[in-house]
Amino acid sequence: MGFSNQNSRNNRIQIGFASGFATLIWIRVTQRGRKLDPSRWIQPSDWIERRIGLFRGRVHSNIFSFYSHRKRASDFTMKQMNPLEELRHSCSHVLATAVLRLFPETQLDIGPPTDQGFYYDFDLDHRFTQEDLEKIEAEMKKVIEENQRFERFEVSREEATKIITDFGQTRYKLGRLADIPAGETISFYRNGEFLDLCAGTHVSYTKKIKAVKLLSIAGAYHRGDEANKQLQRIYGTAFPSKQELEDHLRMLEESKKRDHRKVGREMNLFAFDPEMVGPGLALWLPKGTVLVEELEKLAKEAEFDAGYERVRSPNLAKENLYHTSGHLPYYEDSMYPPMELVEDEGGQKVKYYLKAMNCPHHHLIYAATPKSYRDLPVRLAEYGTCHRYEKSGELMGLMRVRSLQMNDAHIYCTEEQFGDEFRAVNDMYLKYFELFGIKKYLMRFSTHDPSRLGKKFVDEPVLWKETEDMVRRVLIESGIDFVEVPNEAAFYGPKIDVQVWSAIGREFTLATNQVDFAVPARFGLTYTTSENKEATPLCIHRAPLGTHERFIGFLIEHFNGNFPTWLAPEQVRILPLNDGLRDYAEQVRKRFHAKRIRVSVDGHSDKLGAKIRRAEVDRVPHMIVIGDKEASQGNVSVRSRIRKSFEGEHSVDTFIGLLMEDITSRRLPDIFHKEGDQTVT
Length: 681
Prior knowledge:
The protein has 681 residues and is of the alpha+beta class. It folds into three domains: 81-258, Threonyl-tRNA Synthetase, Chain A, domain 2 (2-Layer Sandwich), CATH 3.30.980.10; 282-559, Bira Bifunctional Protein, Domain 2 (BirA Bifunctional Protein, domain 2), CATH 3.30.930; 572-665, 3-Layer(aba) Sandwich (Rossmann fold), CATH 3.40.50.800. Helices cover 33% and strands 24% of the residues. It contains 19 helices and 33 strands. The strands form ten sheets. An eight-stranded mixed beta sheet has the order 12-16-19-26-23-22-20-21, with helices on both faces. Strands 28-27-29-30-31 form a five-stranded mixed beta sheet, with helices on both faces. It has a four-stranded antiparallel beta sheet with strand order 3-4-9-8. A hairpin with a 6-residue loop joins strand 14 (339-342) and strand 15 (349-354). The longest helix has 21 residues, at 415-435. The radius of gyration is 28 Å and the shape is globular. The protein starts with 10 loop residues before the first strand and ends with a strand.
């Protein structure tokens, strides 16, 4: 994937990784005329040190990552880490050291760094408590003060088995040892009395650890498999300085306040019923449905302006469709099990799958009518609902769900048209970022690994090079900053994924833009060239708003529920000062409603202060206070949470006009302002 910011146009960061555990090997910054301006965006060193863990192979504690942890044979073959990873990885070993001191019977699994910190998985009968965390952290500080040296030593497989056995850690470590391929170096790291099967790397001494904090306890199935025992996972974080740690902890506290699940409950946006409906299947309440439909309206307008045509496809299809597309071999584990139906008198059963992606259906829509070069590009857009069987342990609110409403589209074009089309998609992203006040973002350009052709990636080396060069050229010519990440492309072509930062600096993965040179040929998609020959079009997969579930989760936390007027589920609430004003309040409500403004009346008999507090809890952007004076003059008195210029007494028509302009322009709230390099609310 890849990520962009248009402000620093003359720089490109390329990051190369070894296969397996996404180990940093090299960093190259190329400058095309100007120095990188860190005041205008995010400094590369900061991004690398703080964010590198999102790349695949790192277990990602950030719930907004597209990736989940899977066992890989190379987990114990990493060769090098960046400084922040080394620090955090060292902390995981110090954590394990402390746990074994306090709970000697503990069996250890693994303890990698993450993009947010580190963790270690433990197996013991005693259930960790918050009090235990405090004791463990205190013991970690003792280990750090002992200034233990991290020492690496390499051994044979037989020696490794004996070491693990003698150390009393056979339950999981022998299995991890078996993961290391034959011929690979087997190494351990020792600090003090502790040693662990580990390829590293680490800081030199424990006193290099200056700022560490244990955060939480969670359950985690061994190897991420629900069939295995659930272990206890202790999460922590670490930074080079105490100030950085304090800043991070403040961000975490603010994130808790803004958690989309908490705010969603307060605002009555959505609900889940795991028992009656099923886990990961959101029920959109009336107010939450407003968010979905306003985003859909926005996207449809943008796509109409950009020349897209709308299509619809069914929510299920025969097995053959997904065999033809090539998805089943790669994604069957993430699809719902098939339904077997008898469709003929012979009793032959046919398998149907719930739709997990729209692209195979769109390929058939393209193929339904003949195309010439004059018809291209063809841009097909759909708000299709897809279903993916995410593991129950990976579900989290709206961020990881099993039913997805996707802002999806596919562009079929010639090679000559590709640059303009791909650039237009990226431009659409940038417009959305401006609209939602997203100041920090990055494009992650994912390429293939030639050694895995025919395994992870389709075996078309020439087409891989051609399409990757095309994408790279568009990014460079557009002046878009990006990181290039090998071995993370889709199986059918290179892709760009968009990483964004919310108003409080929290990181989210939201959107994708992918190139498909393989699947159109599988479906026999063609167009007639100007020479009257048949050719296969390129296909661009794009979803600028991703899934509505994830995007709305992001927006809830980004705005803390204080949505712009156009997006707010309830735009205006009328607060009459006494029961005698209800008739006038209802007259005012009808006038707003006639303009399709989402408005309600608080008809409770309590005092104004209580009504205002209710409206604030519900994050209603604008309140209208009606007293005897306003009623006699046919006016309203306005209190606004997001637009100070609206406040004061207005005629009803004047305030309706102000609101309509605010809605049609889709303006950001006034409370969005610049503070340092971070947009906050």
